[in-house]
Write a structure and sequence with these properties.
α1 runs parallel beside α5 and α1 crosses α10. The strands form three sheets. Strands 5, 6, 7, 11, 12, 13, 14, 15 and 16 form a nine-stranded mixed sheet that branches. Strands 9-2-1-10-18-17 form a six-stranded mixed sheet. The chain contains eleven helices and 18 strands. It is of the alpha/beta class and 404 residues long. A hairpin with an 8-residue loop joins β13 and β14. 51% of the residues are buried. It is 28% helix and 21% strand.
């Protein structure tokens, strides 16, 4: 950190998504003077944070750090709802199902047993119970799994809007539709904004703005569809909570109907590497691929009309972990990015992580997110925005210790 220009340290946060807003709020709470700038409006229509829903869960295989972060975040989501006086986090539960009997090394098995070891009450599923309690599922296809009542979904776009309001009320100065400019290694960006520290929270645009990170971070396009069933009440919790359909093999996950009766379905496979600045074009055949899955899994949803579709961009890192660390070669620059498709659920703890990185404070969770070099890890992403996807050939070799 360079010499401070004022009695209070000053921070420029670049990017108004979930990383940037939570960082700005936490730094302001700690006494920093904070300015946040974004190239668009907040919520930015192209940001990963901006959608009708994101999954909130603690289920991460047998990974102790992400499970603990999930537990802390769930408490934070409940506290936010109470603080805001509205329900933006819907604790409808998380239904995790498998087409085969759960086996060691698989996401479903490891999550189930690890969470039970940590004292969480889970409800084991079988075909008969699934058919009775969750009748929209094809119980002949999904034979095992569990329901975790601690979890659900957040109205992600509305959460971002609420955090913006809260940040401004706390004294964060926000400039929307700002010209960001390029980072100059001589610190000109710091001087231009009168900042001691710049926090780059640019999501999928990070490697475009900070090209020296391209070897370790890139944008990946993933498809999302919103369906409008004729009888949305049949697709509401508790009978139809947030779900993962053999996610470790297929990549399918989705949500209950929201207040407008819309059911969001998404798939996270290997994805397509793209430029964050490229047009968001849905590949040919994607809708039919989704409908083929629905005909097999949720027959009553298979012919529902599509009311919206979008390409969601993840800022993937080579190993699927976040990137929250000072740049060792550029004094005054802290990068807070690399969502890798699974960051939003951790919103209540992200701000503290980023602020600790800015202030150089010890945090046992930050080691995993530090500045690092590629280690020969696979170039596909082993994580999903609302869960997990791992190609079958990789899944068998990872066992419980790898992040799920």
């Amino acid at each position: 950190m360079r010499t401070r220009l004022s009695a209070s340290p000053t921070a420029l946060v670049v990017g108004g998504g979930i990383f940037g807003l939570t960082a700005a709020l936490e730094l302001r709470t700690r006494g920093w003077e904070v300015t946040l700038i974004d190239a668009g409006i907040i919520p930015h229509p192209d940001a990963a944070s901006t959608d009708i829903s994101k999954v909130v869960r603690m289920d991460y295989g047998a990974d102790p750090q992400y499970t603990a972060m999930g537990e802390a975040s769930l408490a934070g989501w409940r506290a936010w709802d109470e603080q805001w006086g509205t329900t933006l986090f819907h604790e409808d539960g998380f239904l995790v199902l498998s087409r085969e009997v759960m086996q060691p090394g698989a996401f479903e098995y490891e999550s189930y047993h690890y969470l039970r070891q940590r004292g969480h009450p889970l409800r084991r599923m079988n075909a008969e119970r699934l058919s009775r309690e969750h009748p929209q599922w094809n119980a002949e296809l999904y034979v095992d799994g569990y329901l975790n009542p601690a979890g659900g979904w957040a109205e992600s776009g509305r959460v971002v809007a609420q955090l913006k309001v809260q940040a401004e009320a706390a004294g964060v100065v926000i400039h929307e539709q700002a010209v960001l400019g390029d980072w100059e290694e001589d610190g000109a960006l710091l001087r231009r904004w009168g900042a001691d520290v710049v926090v780059a929270a640019l999501g999928a645009w990070t490697p475009e703005a900070l090209p020296w990170l391209k070897p370790v971070m890139w944008a990946t396009a993933q498809p999302v569809f919103h369906f409008q069933p004729a009888h949305p009440e049949r697709f509401q919790a508790p009978a139809f909570p947030v779900w993962a359909a053999d996610i470790g093999v297929t990549g399918w996950y989705g949500f209950p109907a929201n207040a407008e009766g819309v059911v969001k379905v998404a798939n996270h496979g290997p994805g397509r590497r793209v430029s964050a600045n490229a047009p968001r074009i849905m590949p040919d055949g994607e809708e039919e691929r989704f409908r083929a899955f629905l005909r097999e899994t949720f027959p009553a949803l298979a012919e529902a009309p599509v009311v919206a579709q979008r390409i969601c961009l993840y800022g993937d890192t080579f190993d699927g972990d976040f990137w929250i660390a000072p740049d060792p070669e550029r004094p005054g620059l802290v990068v807070a990015a690399g969502d890798s498709g699974h960051a939003f659920k951790f919103a209540p703890v992200l701000g503290g992580l980023i602020a600790d990185a800015v202030e150089g404070l010890p945090n046992p969770w930050l080691g995993r997110f530090g500045w690092r070099e590629p280690t020969g890890a696979p170039s596909f992403l082993p994580l999903w925005s609302a869960g997990l996807v791992m190609p079958l050939f990789f899944r068998a070799s990872t066992a419980a210790g790898v992040l799920l």
